[in-house]
Amino acid sequence: MSETNRHHVLFYRKDWTARVDSKKLRQNRLLIPTLDVEAHKDLHRAVPYVPTLGMYALALVKRDFIPIKDDYEATAYELIETLSRVDNNENLPLLEIEAADLVIRAIEQQIPFIREGIK
User: Fold this and answer.
1) 74: closest CA among 33, 24, 18, 36?
2) Residue 40 reports pLDDT greater than 90
3) Residue 114's closest CA among 26, 7, 27?
4) What 3 state SS string does the chain have?
């Protein structure tokens, strides 16, 4: 039997747990798949960081994000879709939109590793 690790899609812990709202999003169980250890290591080599969201973008994600029951990959895609809608909000400061874009890219890069390594 291969070894596994729990992987938080939103990492690193210190960054994502600094605020209550971002901590709650990070701790959503459908954003913490169990991966094969090697796939997990490969993921972190390929995706070194997921930046945190700004206060307003995070509030919109908190309001609109609905995880997909029992499906880690679909939940990651749903978070991307939610962030894409946030991205199109003209009332957000440009830096928050750019940060949301980076989060989308970081999650997209993780999906192949999640798909391959899920246990």
Assistant:
1) 33
2) yes
3) 7
4) CCCEEECCCCCCHHHHCCCHHHHHHHCCHHHCCEEEHHHHHHHHHHCCCCCCCCHHHHHHHHHHCCCCCCCHHHHHHHHHHHHHHHHCCCCCCHHHHHHHHHHHHHHHHHHHHHHHHEC
Which has the closest alpha carbon to 78: 89, 67, 92?
Answer: 67
- Per residue in 48-107, pLDDT tens? 999 999 999 999 999 999 999 999 999 999 999 999 998 888 899 999 999 999 999 999
| C-alpha to C-alpha distance for 46 and 67, rounded to whole angstroms | 25
Amino acid, res. 98: E
φ and ψ at 45, to 5 degrees? Answer: -70, -35
pTM of the model: 0.94
Cα–Cα dist 78/68, whole Å: 7
Residue with tokens 């796939």: 39
